Amino acid sequence: MSQSSALEFIRQAHPAPTPPDRRTAILRDPGFGRVFTDHMVTIRYTEGKGWHDAVIGPRGPIAMDPAAAVLHYSQEIFEGLKAYRTADGGAVMFRPGENARRFQKSAERLAMPSLPEDLFVAALEHLVSIDRDWIPEGDGSLYLRPFMFASEVFLGVKPSSEYLFIVIASPVGSYFKSKDSAVSVWVSQDLTRAAPGGTGAAKCGGNYAASLLAQMEAAKEGCEQVVFLDATERRWIEELGGMNIFFAFEDGSMQTPPLGGTILPGITRASIIALARDMGITVREEPYSFDQWRADAASGRLKETFACGTAAVLTPIGTVRSRDGNFTIGNGRSAAQTEKLRSTLIDIQRTRAADPHGWVHKVF
Ligand code: PLP
Ligand code: COI
């Protein structure tokens, strides 16, 4: 098969792929992240040898030694992006090069080896191509999950000398169950996600493990997501457990927390900033406090708030809850700015609109 970074992908035949009628039934309502395609990509890394043994083969369990370093010290990073079916029967991915570069930055922070961008993108292309029948029609998409973990069998605390890079794919619909209405969020005033100097800007599993207790608290309060405040002052809004956040004001301007090393530099976030600026909207990347959020919602200066990310796309936030009380944004539903940016982004991602920034990557 094709070459990438001088590495050839070996193809292993699937002995029993999912029958087409079963696949069709699954694709009717895939949910999010519970069903998977037939194949996966694996590439190994060994210190002194580099990346080797690139395989596209049947998806299945991976044998792991109980002393594999990742199971003890969580040296693991991942990415998330989507492939979409296009009207001409082809498939595209949205900005995979950005995911490749963020993966490299996450790897650097977690003392892991750098996977070349072309190898990362080639792995995605192989999987999307081989599992093309798994890309849902309509509003769905194929969520791609590249990840890498420490596989060396050793209990000393040090960077692993061996890693496994894998890509799996999951046909998905909407991340949130309440598809049309806005979601509610819980502001975590005690538990934080990331501190200055920590791993907040890296997409590592540990960040998500650290977010789960606060997410549980949010669920207990009837909220879909948790909003984290900064770890130093517990004052500034950072991001959600798995999404960035934007605020839209009555003067037409928008604001989002700056990338200070404690939040994930979202690719959706960057795309929205670019699209909003294309529309002539002023976007500030400046700190916004929880107190100000509450005051602006009450005064009516704040019109909209939305969460954004690959999984969530653009999801309006209607209600904010915290131990200090609750408040509503606007009329508690999605509003004009959110909808306009959402449809503009989705139309580009699905090749229904021109792609002025060259973000769409054709697979076939
Ligand atoms: N913030 C966190 C913590 C996330 O997990 C995600 C999702 O990947 C995002 C933000 C949004 O990033 P992106 O738009 O690249 O998906
Ligand atoms: C994504 O949007 O890709 C994420 O990783 C976030 C998670 C909530 C699924």
TrEMBL record:
EC code(s) of this entry: 2.6.1.42
Catalytic activity: L-isoleucine + 2-oxoglutarate = (S)-3-methyl-2-oxopentanoate + L-glutamate; L-leucine + 2-oxoglutarate = 4-methyl-2-oxopentanoate + L-glutamate; L-valine + 2-oxoglutarate = 3-methyl-2-oxobutanoate + L-glutamate
Cofactor requirements of the protein: pyridoxal 5'-phosphate
Modification sites for N6-(pyridoxal phosphate)lysine: 203
Enzyme class: transferase
UniProt keyword terms in alphabetical order: Amino-acid biosynthesis, Aminotransferase, Branched-chain amino acid biosynthesis, Pyridoxal phosphate, Transferase
Example of a GO biological process term: isoleucine biosynthetic process
InterPro entries, alphabetized: Aminotrans_IV, Aminotrans_IV_CS, Aminotransferase-like, B_amino_transII, BCAT-like_C, BCAT-like_N, BCAT_family
Domain of life: Bacteria
Region span, Disordered: 1-21
Pathway: Amino-acid biosynthesis; L-valine biosynthesis; L-valine from pyruvate: step 4/4; Amino-acid biosynthesis; L-leucine biosynthesis; L-leucine from 3-methyl-2-oxobutanoate: step 4/4; Amino-acid biosynthesis; L-isoleucine biosynthesis; L-isoleucine from 2-oxobutanoate: step 4/4
GO molecular function: L-isoleucine-2-oxoglutarate transaminase activity; L-leucine-2-oxoglutarate transaminase activity; L-valine-2-oxoglutarate transaminase activity
Protein family per UniProt: Belongs to the class-IV pyridoxal-phosphate-dependent aminotransferase family.
Role noted for this protein: Acts on leucine, isoleucine and valine.
Name of the protein: Branched-chain-amino-acid aminotransferase
Provenance organism: Vineibacter terrae
